[in-house]
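Observation: inputs received (chain + adenosine-5'-diphosphate).
Thought: call the complex predictor directly.
Action: predict_structure
Action Input:
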Amino acid sequence: MSLDQVSRRRGRAQAGVLLLALLMAAIFLADTLTRLEVAMAVFYVVVILLALSLLPRRGVIGVALICAALTVFSLFLTPEGGSLRSVGLVNAAISIAAIGITAYLALKRAAAEEAAQEARVQLARLSRVQSMGELTASIAHEINQPLAAIVTSGSACQRWLEHDPPNLERGLRALQRMIDDANRASEVVKRIRRLLRNAEPRMASVDLADIAAESVDMTRGEMQRRGVTLNERIQEGLPAVRADPVQIGQVIINLLLNAIEAMRDMPSGERRLTLWVSVAEPGQVQVVVADTGPGLSPQARERLFDAFWTTKPDGTGLGLTISRAIVESHGGRLWTEPAKRGGATFCFTLPVTAKDAVADKDAVADKDA
Ligand code: ADP
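Observation:
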């Protein structure tokens, strides 16, 4: 998040807390000045519901306790006595019960929302791991078969050549089988690469800003857990792109998770993630994901997009390979930029839809005229 956004958010939070305090003071005054049979204190539930969106869990509990204390306090300050005192006591008890129940239910709901958010991230990770696991298994199976055949033919060839006298004709036939099987293995690799590139996406006219915002939502819990701050700049009024929102969401989530993981060993306070979405050039929407991690070594730069190249103990080395294949199948490009101040920067572009491309060009032409 940029400094500007941080100070704007802080300003909004301070204004919210001030509003809470004013509301509490107003209810306290009204409760003290009105007669004891009027249960004004019940309105403290509004304060608690507001506090929920402004304060952390402990803050909400604190506000609920203050509201309950103010209810009791104003009961003693209200200048009416006699038989009305018992009515006031009943009203105060009802108000305090309402405050307690509201705080309890509101906090329970917030906890449930947090758990649901967590589950969504887990699901996104699981689907990433699952699809990669399936892909790895199928690649291993397809390649293992010709490899096993090559070993069999190789042993046969060796036997025919060791024969006395050597049986050259059969040896040569075994060699030919080895060449055929090796070609088959390389054909399998080519087919898989083609498959990844041509995986039929479900295209629609979509707003990359929405996909980026959803991807951020999916990874927000992970960012908070790892103490990562986000600088998010999404240009307003972006032209639509033709894309499969699920696939492009996977690409952004993959880049965000890689960035978060890369900053694991950085000192807290220096884990900053940047996500920019903008029109970089007419007809192209660009997404940039940058981090303040250790950056890319020369070897990483060379091998980053190789299938199965990973430096993580539990990595698959397929995330970037698949991401690049997805972006290219959308007619876009995915690359890394030399980072100016350390860390790694990944960018990808997607072409805007034909209709928006025309509008985009017209806008540029209007500007030039
Ligand atoms: P995986 O995440 O399973 O390792 P990827 O293809 O997504 O597979 O990434 C391959 C490798 O590229 C990672 O293991 C890591 O070494 C490197 N890498 C990816 N993103 C970053 C980044 N933001 N900073 C530094 N290294 C990165």
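Thought: report the result.
Final Answer: Residues 258-259, 262, 291, 293, 296, 300, 304, 309-312, 315-321, 344 surround adenosine-5'-diphosphate (CB under 6 Å). The chain has three domains: 3-128, 135-196, 204-368.
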